[in-house]
Recover the amino acids of this structure.
């Protein structure tokens, strides 16, 4: 039995959380973070996408609220949208890419629940990156598939990230 007090969406939306929290059907959920490997990879990816934003015609958004249903809001570590997508305060459409960088406390079932929310919204490309094991996965509602080769790619775009360069950030 859960003892968590449920709050309405309107209260979640007018409250500032530091760091921001997910909102799942009335429950405010803290996100695992705060460790240097997580922060370094999140920062590297944000900077990489920012530096390539004109070439790739994108906008990278770290820790941006994403409304996946009327009562579910997620905060991907890094989200990438198209440059001509709406400039909304909260993203309510399927981004081009959602990236989750694992923290040491993340549980597979919780990460899969996040992935399922992204898929439900229509996100085609979802990356889950494990800085502890130095592994990267392409995720879907069917589970996690270890990235093949040495790059992660976004379907139908020139976007790609080299895994060797990514994990070099941890050295």
């Amino acid at each position: 039995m859960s003892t968590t007090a449920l709050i309405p969406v309107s209260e979640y939306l007018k409250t500032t959380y530091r760091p921001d929290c997910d909102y799942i059907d009335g429950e405010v959920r803290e996100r695992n973070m705060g460790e240097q490997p997580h922060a370094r990879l999140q920062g590297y990816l944000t900077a990489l996408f920012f530096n390539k934003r004109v070439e790739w015609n994108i906008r990278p958004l770290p820790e941006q609220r994403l409304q996946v249903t009327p009562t579910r809001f997620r905060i991907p570590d890094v989200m990438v949208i198209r440059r001509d997508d709406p400039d909304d305060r909260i993203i309510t459409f399927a981004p081009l890419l959602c990236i989750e960088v694992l923290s040491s406390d993340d549980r597979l079932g919780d990460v899969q629940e996040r992935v399922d929310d992204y898929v439900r919204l229509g996100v085609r490309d979802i990356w889950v990156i494990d800085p502890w094991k130095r592994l990267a996965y392409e995720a879907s509602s069917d589970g996690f598939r270890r990235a093949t080769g040495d790059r992660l790619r976004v379907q139908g775009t020139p976007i790609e990230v080299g895994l060797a360069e990514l994990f070099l950030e941890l050295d």
The CA atoms of residues 9 and 70 lie 8 Å apart. The chain has a mean pLDDT of 93.
